[in-house]
Amino acid sequence: MNILLILIGFCIPALILSWRLPEKLQFIPVVLVTIIFLFYKSPLSLLLLGLSCIINYHVLKYMPSVTAATLVVVLQMCFIFLFFKLDYAVCFNVSQSSILPLGLSYYSFRQIHYAIEAYKKQLPKHTFLDYVNYLFFLPTLLVGPINRFQTFIKDYNRRRWDNRLFSMGLERILYGLTKITFLGNYIITRKLNTFISSISDDYLWGSTYLKIVSFFANSYIQFSGYSDVAIGLSLLFGFKVMENFNYPFLATNIADFWKRWHISLSDWCKDYIFFPFLSITRNAKLSILISMITLGLWHEISIRYILWALLHALAINIWYKYENSFLQKKLDHIPLLKKGLGIFITIHFVMFSFVIVSENTLNESLEVFKTLLVLNI
Question: Model pTM?
Answer without folding.
Answer: 0.91
